[in-house]
């Protein structure tokens, strides 16, 4: 792997500057077991027992194949792979040349794949500046939107949530819960609601999972009837929403569970119905009521829709 990487960088430089063909010196370090050992000794996240086991695995006098197999069978291998391997597998390209005054200058730059840093274009006294590498700059961007539905909401609930950076998100919800006992038409509950929610995610890693806390502002129309007596009205709510989310089905979906606590203010118009399914007769007064406490329980199924674009 090390040899292939250095050859790839060399081929790239030859394509840009054919005159460098006989001036390139290629070196590949191969497997860096000593570097892996040093990283393990310096890792403050490891306990003493784990660090000792790690060093023991690396220092065992066995062939490389056996050592690799033992490492891969260890339950800590995914941690090592993600934390150590990127730095161990880095590459370096150096250009050495002399100026008119015989001053040796060393330019070093990090190479990630075949990308070359712009720092090569520097001016040296007595010489023209080094030719700037004609590298096409590129950047990969990833965007996502999350569609969700509260499974506890009867009839219909749909929401959409947009990530804002790695720790915040903004969501919009539309709900139309509707409950009615059809045999007697004496009891029903209907609501048409909209809400907007700003949310902070503790993980702050852009995954939209784990613990989160949000502030929700909602408005709604409602109609509640029980035993031929009902109320129609509008309400305004301000709530704090705690939610925990985790990926399911190989991270193709997310599952959210949450609880809302907040304040609700409403103006209602009482009415009476005298015949099942008949006309509602509104009373001559309105009612104002306020509520402070739990407002919503949520078990939501969330579909992440993601796409990537290279600029």
Overview of this structure, please?
- This protein is of the alpha+beta class and 311 residues long.
- The protein folds into two domains: 2-120, no CATH class; 143-310, Porin (Beta Barrel).
- The chain is 19% helix and 48% strand.
- It is built from six helices and 13 strands.
- Strands 4-5-6-8-9-10-11-13 form an eight-stranded antiparallel barrel. It has a three-stranded antiparallel sheet with strand order 1-2-3.
- A hairpin with a 6-residue loop joins strand 11 (253-273) and strand 12.
- Helix 2 packs antiparallel against helix 3 (48-59).
- It is elongated, with a radius of gyration of 32 Å.
- Mean pLDDT is 79; it is low at 105-109 and 111-138.
Oligomer designation? single chain
CATH fold name of the largest domain = Porin
* CATH class (first level) name of the largest domain: Mainly Beta
Mean pLDDT, as a whole number? 79
General shape: elongated
Portion of residues within helices: 10-25%
Major sheet details: 8 strands, antiparallel, barrel
CA distance, first residue to last residue: 28 Å
């Amino acid at each position: 792997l090390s040899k292939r990487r250095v050859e790839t960088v060399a081929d790239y430089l030859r394509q840009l500057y054919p005159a460098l063909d006989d001036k390139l010196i290629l070196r590949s370090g191969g497997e860096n077991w000593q570097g892996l050992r040093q990283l393990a000794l310096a890792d403050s996240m490891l306990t003493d027992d784990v660090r000792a086991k790690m060093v023991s695995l690396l220092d065992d006098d066995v062939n490389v194949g056996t050592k690799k197999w033992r490492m891969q069978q260890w339950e800590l291998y995914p941690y090592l792979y993600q934390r150590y391997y990127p730095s161990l597998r880095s590459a370096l390209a150096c250009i050495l040349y002399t100026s008119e005054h015989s001053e040796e200058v060393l330019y070093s730059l990090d190479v990630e794949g075949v990308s070359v840093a712009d720092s090569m274009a520097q001016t040296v006294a007595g010489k023209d500046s080094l030719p700037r590498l004609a590298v096409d700059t590129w950047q990969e961007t990833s965007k996502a939107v999350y569609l969700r539905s509260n499974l506890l909401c009867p009839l219909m609930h749909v929401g959409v949530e947009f990530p804002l950076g790695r720790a915040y998100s903004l969501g919009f919800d539309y709900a139309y819960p509707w409950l009615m006992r059809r045999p007697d038409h004496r009891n029903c509950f209907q609501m048409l609601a909209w809400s907007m929610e700003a949310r902070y995610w503790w993980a702050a890693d852009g995954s939209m999972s784990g613990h989160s806390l949000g502030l929700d502002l909602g408005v709604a129309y409602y109609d509640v009837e029980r035993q031929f007596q009902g109320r129609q009205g509008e309400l305004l709510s301000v709530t704090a929403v705690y939610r925990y989310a985790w990926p399911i089905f190989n991270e193709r979906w997310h599952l959210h569970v949450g609880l809302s606590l907040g304040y609700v203010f409403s103006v209602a118009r009482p009415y009476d119905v005298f015949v099942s399914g008949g006309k509602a007769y509104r009373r001559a007064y309105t009612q104002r009521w306020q509520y402070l406490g739990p407002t919503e329980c949520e078990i939501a199924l969330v579909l992440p829709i993601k796409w990537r674009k290279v600029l």
